[in-house]
Amino acid sequence: MDLSYGSEYSDFREEVRGFIAAHQEKSPSQASMRGAEGLAWQKLLLDNGYHSRTVPKAYGGFGAEPDILKSRIISEEFSAAQLSTGLGGQGISMLTPVLLEMGTEGQKLQFIKPTIMGEMIWCQGYSEPGAGSDLASLTTKAELDGGDWVINGQKIWTSTAQLADWIFCLVRTEPDAPKHQGISFLLFSMDTPGIEIRPLVDMTGDANFNEVFFTDVRVPKDQIVGRRGQGWQVANAILGHERGSLAPPDAAENRLKGIIKLMETETIDGHRVMDSPVFRDRLMKLQGQVLAMRCNDMRLLSARINKGQDARLAGMIVKLQGTELRHELEGFAIDVLGEIGLAYEDNPYLRGNGSWQYQYMYFLGLIIGGGTSQIQKNIIGERGLDLPREPKVAKA
Amino acid sequence: MDLSYGSEYSDFREEVRGFIAAHQEKSPSQASMRGAEGLAWQKLLLDNGYHSRTVPKAYGGFGAEPDILKSRIISEEFSAAQLSTGLGGQGISMLTPVLLEMGTEGQKLQFIKPTIMGEMIWCQGYSEPGAGSDLASLTTKAELDGGDWVINGQKIWTSTAQLADWIFCLVRTEPDAPKHQGISFLLFSMDTPGIEIRPLVDMTGDANFNEVFFTDVRVPKDQIVGRRGQGWQVANAILGHERGSLAPPDAAENRLKGIIKLMETETIDGHRVMDSPVFRDRLMKLQGQVLAMRCNDMRLLSARINKGQDARLAGMIVKLQGTELRHELEGFAIDVLGEIGLAYEDNPYLRGNGSWQYQYMYFLGLIIGGGTSQIQKNIIGERGLDLPREPKVAKA
Amino acid sequence: MEFGLSSEQTLLQDTVNRFLDEQAPLATVRQIAAAEIDDGAIWKGLVELGIPALLIPEHMGGVGLGSLDAAIVAESLGYHATPAPFLGTAVMAPLAFIQSGQQEALLGAMAQGDYRVGIAFGEAIGARNDAGTQFSSGKLTGKAIFALDAAADGYLVATREKHLYFVEATAKGFSRRLLTTVDKTRTTVELVFDGVVAELVSQDPGVFNQVLDAGRVMQAADTLGAAQYALDQAVDYAKQRKQFERVIGSFQAVKHMCAEMAASLEPCRSLVWYAGHALDHMPDESRVTACHAKAHLAEVGRFVAKTATEVHGGMGFTDLVGLHYWFKRIGANRQLLGSPELVREEAARLQGMVA
Amino acid sequence: MEFGLSSEQTLLQDTVNRFLDEQAPLATVRQIAAAEIDDGAIWKGLVELGIPALLIPEHMGGVGLGSLDAAIVAESLGYHATPAPFLGTAVMAPLAFIQSGQQEALLGAMAQGDYRVGIAFGEAIGARNDAGTQFSSGKLTGKAIFALDAAADGYLVATREKHLYFVEATAKGFSRRLLTTVDKTRTTVELVFDGVVAELVSQDPGVFNQVLDAGRVMQAADTLGAAQYALDQAVDYAKQRKQFERVIGSFQAVKHMCAEMAASLEPCRSLVWYAGHALDHMPDESRVTACHAKAHLAEVGRFVAKTATEVHGGMGFTDLVGLHYWFKRIGANRQLLGSPELVREEAARLQGMVA
């Protein structure tokens, strides 16, 4: 057990700290991430290897060898200094790794650099109204007509669709093949005629997602990643990237700290909520759970560095446990606040900018999204514990 | 809403109270229920219609019209006076109603009277090692050989097998029929050659159940209830009787009272457990649940009296909720007791005769037995909420 | 012996349900939640059904029904997530006025839908931060937060001493502002009293308690209805929605989620009935029972609201199916008039368990 | 950076596991639980593996390993529900003697399996009813209940002041009797001190706390192992047992029960490792971490013990599969050295949250 990163990393940490000291005043606010200030900051990060660190130089990255501890040090130091770690989004976190792995040289050269520079924003066309948990049953179809795919159908849960320049999209190209083998992975501009975007308002009151409709959308034949019918494998490579990142324990820790502060400042009949043993006991239960998830995360980090360490199951449970825990944490904060916990939007009694209620709902969405808790349990049971899959149903 | 039993029942209550005042000193202790004292008490109850009240006189009962409120008044008054309500057991609670409904006149005359008199003790041959939740897959077979059924196979979960004079038993008589249509319901003496009983020790340390092995057990052909192959319907009629009676809320209420007493008397560092807000909050949560189940029970009672009142779902959830709640209650008592909660058997610090630990385990058994919680949820989902059954599995 | 609803009560519930099905569908709830229209039309309809007159004795011009009847109405309102000033104007205020013999003149106007009374009890239950009101020399000073009903014509205000006062919304020195919450089907407000003329309703904590108990049982009933709606919707959705070429309700995971909701909710129905009955007929039990109904429904409601949303998958998270109105209403019922921890402690105190 | 077991630690765990697989199978556990044999042979084997010498520094004749190593052993013992005086004789007593510099002479005998030390800490953690001990003029008077190890040669006794004393089981005025519990894989006793000569080990509450923390982490590790065993058994059973012509593990209900166990238990492994590491290396965090490990494992353990039994159906309830030994061991770990409510309150106090 060695929780330090070792002396060989001290230099790197110093280097990061030096960069931060020199440049921190340039870090943009969240709101201006896509503005000039944000793009300049992004370029600075890219040039210094603090973003897209392992992406080859030819594609606009820094070309460094993968080093998980260095990545972690960067995120630790930026987080401690409360600086922006640069642009995120599905183009950067999901598409770029996929292109690096499965794209053609031309695709890599064309798409990666503008994507990580923030000049090309992507959205994901994946789920459909009829294809949620059973994603592979998607029916948006693309048919070849001359040199073009002609796309018809509908996507849902498409975040940032209004902002996006391009979309990476799963479509059915071989309607007669088994469902997992008839899907292709296409890339196309959101300016292509025939695309309609409708914001999808959710329970938080915001439109965090959209519906996207395709009517005879024409896409050049070569804008495909992988081969025809290989889209499902491409998509699964992406899903892996998504699942790990939904509920990092540091966010849960910060929320817990926020709750402790609430309990120390909010009062009922003049007594601090912290002085209620019942609330304190619930707090300690949650603190224990958050600590366990933090430890689990350290183990996962370690297993990525140290080959041979098995943490497969520890990784599989993160989405399920992490999202449920966050939902519970936010709900506990609402209980701590009592009536004030109901405050929303322009309410002057709002605490934490209304984030307790917002996140309480948003994390219920995350419990459902990206593989519902029920799908997660199937995965844990079948892939983690080697229990048999649901048997095939007899034809009626 | 009328919680009184109405003035027309006051006379009956007075009558019961009069009986109790006159005879209460004859009520036997639990231990001597099967002794001379117990059998005399049983006879007294039968003669006065306080046991087997609606069983026709011809079969040894009192021959009264069914009246649920009278039955309830009897049980309330006997419970208030802490008197024995007479013999129970599977012969009385399960076989007798079945014989009344599906037995031949000869069977009724032969079996019911000695059963309710306590002269004939029954056990149930139902579950098998390979047939638990999937009871209908039972394989103990009975083949006709001349005038006899010849039985081979094994039963499990047979309580009181050592005490029993006779057994009512499900056996497969038509091996080629669909599994629900190949079962018959046989009655036979436990003295029949070829029966071996092995006590089945459980987690409480007691042998609350047995395994029973049959090797060429010969049973006269006519000792069958219902027709050949009709045993499943007979069995289901019995199961209905069993499920309602596993977790009556008055027992839960008594246990809750016991916990309150524990919390008032047990101390930690000189402070009563009741003075701990955390334990008090858990107590109140449980009290709320127990109250809800009590109210649910009143509704069920009412629905049995007042035709047209729908309480189907309210009845279906009793086994699931009742057993889980009792297990939780007993576990809470163990927490209240701390280390002392671990005491068992001859431990001088035992509280409540060790019943907290015993019932904690026993009710885990009841969560499993008589239809596991998972089976209960299937039933609630499918029969209560009309959700579709699990589809048939394709042949591999 | 009959533990359940009488035929009159069933008729009452059917009548209210039919009215709400027709006149207060989701589309209308949405409009009111978006402040495009107010709840006036719905309230007018409920007034025509006699709802605000329900608890007012016949000799005072009311219908003279009981708390259980009111609870049945509350359940229907919860089932439909109906925006209406029922809790204050039809239950808590009438009870307070009847019990104290004060403001009886208002009862007629309330019964006819001409006067709405909001409720400011939070500070007497567990005052948050700096909120609280003081009465002296006939005037009320201070602040009440998360008082019920932004459109009320007057408010019943409880001080920490559990004294009840009545204040007109037009009184000098009175001001209020809307406190937006997640639950847009009801409104809450901040009331500021700058030496406002107030009339004493009762200095008897017994009256306060009785009114509070009734309010809590109504909230429990509202949660019962809202949770039943959420469960019904989840079951319906599970029967229709297909994934993996099966309706999802045939998957044991989804089926068991529905079964668990039903198993925990079904006894709540009986608990609410009992608590409603106890308010009028079982003075020894009614206070503890009201606490249990409020707290237990808060817990079961939270579980059902979450689980029903999950059964709906992503749709449950969207505004499209509108389930969130019920989710939020259940959440608001949990916190208002005493959050569960507080209410359970009160139940323990009432039983002499708190040293 | 390496968050996990070193190759030496993996080797240690493998070695202990192999020994226990072979020498302490369920049949042996049964015999000991039935008091047909004692735990002497198992302990002898563990002594040969160096287990009681683990925490004793090399210059005192021990192996000089750390708390995480001990926790790994505790996990193995829990996994096998092994009857052995590990907690007292291999962890808590050596730590107390080493930290205080007292009774060092005993360490050698303990390491060689010639001396067992039981632990009587209950009264310093939360004294039940009339239990408690007083020390004056060199003698101990009073009573300790649910002390660990009925076969100990001496006991480490904590008073309410968190002072530690050592008492020999042969001392005049000392008597003990077995306190039977549900968990037959370990023994607990009542100790009565009638003016027994006792030697002061430490008056420093810091020493008491350190020993207690270590004990709690070991119990958490024991529960981790026991719960992992229960889960493994449940998964195995679910793969073999057929009902409705399918292995039950293919039913979503059973599969999800297993998945829920794994999901809640897997992070516990990391928590226990961290807590074990913290005992030696992170003095600022170690106390709170030990509390969380103890309390969290108590809750997860209870859930897993129940659920694994349910997955086994009726078999889980019987003595046949023997799962109940683990169920009860997890139950005992929950209550001994501080039940979860008590331990969580301590965690809050350590963080300055209790006014």
TrEMBL record, chains A, B:
Pfam family, one: Acyl-CoA_dh_N
GO molecular function: flavin adenine dinucleotide binding; oxidoreductase activity, acting on the CH-CH group of donors
Record domain Acyl-CoA oxidase/dehydrogenase middle: where: 123-217
Cofactor(s) needed by this chain: FAD
Organism from which the protein derives: SAR86 cluster bacterium
Membership in a protein family: Belongs to the acyl-CoA dehydrogenase family.
Protein name per UniProt: Acyl-CoA dehydrogenase family protein
Keywords from the UniProt entry: FAD, Flavoprotein, Oxidoreductase
PANTHER family xrefs: ACYL-COA DEHYDROGENASE, ACYL-COA DEHYDROGENASE FADE29
Keyword Flavoprotein: yes
Annotated InterPro entries: Acyl-CoA_Oxase/DH_mid-dom (IPR006091), Acyl-CoA_Oxase/DH_mid-dom_sf (IPR046373), AcylCo_DH-like_C (IPR036250), AcylCo_DH/oxidase_C (IPR009075), AcylCoA_DH/ox_N (IPR013786), AcylCoA_DH/ox_N_sf (IPR037069), AcylCoA_DH/oxidase_NM_dom_sf (IPR009100), Mycobact_Acyl-CoA_DH (IPR052161)
Domain Acyl-CoA dehydrogenase/oxidase N-terminal: 8-119
TrEMBL record, chains C, D:
Key words, A-Z: FAD, Flavoprotein, Oxidoreductase
Pfam families: Acyl-CoA_dh_1, Acyl-CoA_dh_N
Transmembrane parts of this sequence: none
Domain Acyl-CoA dehydrogenase/oxidase N-terminal, first and last residues per copy: 7-114
Required cofactor(s): FAD
Flavoprotein among keywords: yes
GO function terms (MF aspect): acyl-CoA dehydrogenase activity; flavin adenine dinucleotide binding
SUPFAM superfamilies noted in UniProt: Acyl-CoA dehydrogenase C-terminal domain-like (SSF47203), Acyl-CoA dehydrogenase NM domain-like (SSF56645)
InterPro entries: AcylCo_DH-like_C, AcylCo_DH/oxidase_C, AcylCoA_DH/ox_N, AcylCoA_DH/ox_N_sf, AcylCoA_DH/oxidase_NM_dom_sf
Domain (Acyl-CoA dehydrogenase/oxidase C-terminal): residue spans on this chain: 207-349
The keyword Isomerase belongs to this UniProt entry's keyword annotation: no
Family of the protein in this entry: Belongs to the acyl-CoA dehydrogenase family.
Protein name: Acyl-CoA/acyl-ACP dehydrogenase
Taxon lineage: Bacteria, Pseudomonadati, Pseudomonadota, Gammaproteobacteria, SAR86 cluster
